[in-house]
Specification:
The chain is α/β, with parallel strands linked by helices. The chain folds into 2 domains: 236 residues, Glycogen Phosphorylase B (Rossmann fold, 3-Layer(aba) Sandwich); 152 residues, Rossmann fold (3-Layer(aba) Sandwich), CATH 3.40.50.2000. It has 16 helices and 13 strands.
Length: 407
């Protein structure tokens, strides 16, 4: 008899999804379908532009979705509903999930329940913290299902870091209240789950420090585009920055690097190449002959093959950074700080170069240009580290085994 899985997420997965979390979601759900005798029903959200890439039917995965930008009316309703969740410091979930998403999730869940009144899901998988926050609502309908929350990262750490970065005391107080509400909501949801996945030991420790039951936690690894097959070419002097460039943790970090580091690099052959979809307007004004902002590119491997290094001077964010894993797998030297390296297990000077200050980055870049042996060392060690430590299929097999023990 087939296992019934209800999968709930805020973002639709598909093979060409551009963002890191979407790639994780896409790989996980299709791995389950391929390796488990199961029926999967996905409830999620999509944008109109994504519908041409929709491919779940090809994998025999049933899916219901709400189109967030279906019409002017939908957009207007979404903005009005979300106003309270954005502006109220005492929002129930601290703004961790927007009101439109809460409304949409409940609508889809009710419809699914009505149409499957006698078919209780064996497993309910909640992808991302936003979906995890719906667990109490779901448990009223399906008290006997086994619940798994997939924590792409421990979200409250990211919100706390955002609070720490704010200087204005009034704004800081506003976000501090919201951050605490979000943290409490996230921890309550995790306490009500049967299984929690985390991507690294650092996130496990964060949850253990908040008295989450260790027996619930299973450590997996995130999906990433493994580029270990790339054959390196002679390196030029291009410095890469890579990520979804509409996200504050990326475009603010790129701007920081430009202003604090790149403008101090006076070798005209050194260029800064910023790759990633939907670059923010604040970033676009820095475009020049030496600063290239590409937007989304189909083939990033051609940049990974011969660039000098990738920099990731991250100011915000939490959890394992997939961009770091991809660069390491390609043998591309990585310069990053503690936020960029956290949870991965890489060692400064062996797998990457740790840089905290502008001066650290400047010195490392010039040293890397002159030192071919260091380039080769970082290339070799990065590739081997990924081979040895980041086998996603092994970890997902362990997750399925863990879930099966609870049936």
């Amino acid at each position: 008899m087939k296992i019934k899985i209800l999968w709930i997420s805020p973002f639709i997965p598909y093979d060409k999804v551009p963002h890191a979390g979407g790639k994780v979601h896409n790989y996980y759900i299709k791995y389950f379908k391929k390796n488990l005798n199961c029926e999967i029903k996905l409830l999620t959200f999509a944008k109109k532009i994504e519908l041409s890439e929709f491919d779940l039917n090809n994998y025999n995965i049933d899916c219901e979705y709400i189109i967030k930008d279906k019409s002017f009316t939908t957009i207007l309703v979404r903005k009005l509903l979300n106003l309270e969740s954005k502006c109220n410091p005492f929002h129930k979930f601290g703004g961790g999930i927007m009101n439109f998403d809460i409304y949409g999730f409940k609508k889809m869940i009710k419809e699914y329940y009505k149409n499957n009144i006698e078919n209780t899901p064996d497993y309910i998988i909640l992808q991302w913290t936003q979906a995890g926050l719906m667990i109490d609502y779901l448990k009223k309908l399906y008290p006997n299902s086994i619940y798994t929350i997939i924590e792409e990262d421990v979200s409250f750490q990211g919100t706390q870091r955002k609070v720490d970065s704010i200087q204005n005391p009034i704004i800081k107080t506003f976000y501090k209240i919201r951050s605490l509400k979000y943290k409490n909501a996230e921890l309550l949801a995790l306490n009500h789950a049967n299984i929690i996945t985390v991507n690294n030991s650092k996130d496990r420790d964060l949850l253990l420090n908040e008295n989450i039951d260790n027996d619930k936690i299973i450590q997996v690894v995130p999906y990433f585009d493994n580029k270990v097959h790339i054959k390196t070419e002679p390196r030029n002097k291009n410095i890469l920055f890579y990520g979804a460039m509409h996200r504050a943790e990326n475009y603010l970090s790129a701007i920081w690097f430009i202003e604090k580091v790149f403008y101090q690099l006076h070798d005209n052959d050194i260029k800064f190449i910023i790759i990633g979809s939907n670059p923010n307007r604040q970033l676009l004004k820095y475009k020049s002959d030496r600063i290239k902002i590409t937007g989304y590119v189909d083939d990033i491997e051609k940049y990974f093959k011969n660039s000098l290094c990738m920099v990731a001077p991250l100011l915000l964010g939490a959890g394992i950074k997939v961009k770091i894993l991809e660069a390491l797998s390609a043998g591309l030297p990585v310069l990053t700080n503690n936020i960029g390296a956290e949870g991965i297990g890489i060692v400064n000077g062996i797998h990457y170069i740790n840089c905290s200050t502008p001066d650290d980055y400047t010195k490392a870049i010039y040293f890397l240009i002159k030192n071919k042996s260091l380039q080769k060392l970082l290339e070799k060690n990065g590739k081997q580290f990924i081979k040895d430590n980041f086998s996603i299929d092994i970890k997902l097999h362990e997750l399925i085994q863990k879930m099966n023990t609870l049936r």
